[in-house]
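re the bet — no i am not wrong, look at it urself. input seq straight from the record:
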Amino acid sequence: MKDINRIKVVLVEQKKTGKWLAKELGKDPSTISKWCSNKMQPSLEMLMQIAEKLDVDVRDLIVNTKL
């Protein structure tokens, strides 16, 4: 499966952890881990919440398909 989201990349760029994001969103750290490894994808609503917590445009969390 190809990578769809860039959550892990953005977390690394901001020097934040999946554990931090899990606490901020009230989610289980294993769920965040699955999102970061692209084994599972968050809903669009959750992606919006993630973008808000990371203070980025939601488009920064999605892999660009047009290069």
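see?? The radius of gyration is 11 Å. told u. also The helical segments are 7-13, 18-25, 29-36, 44-54. so pay up
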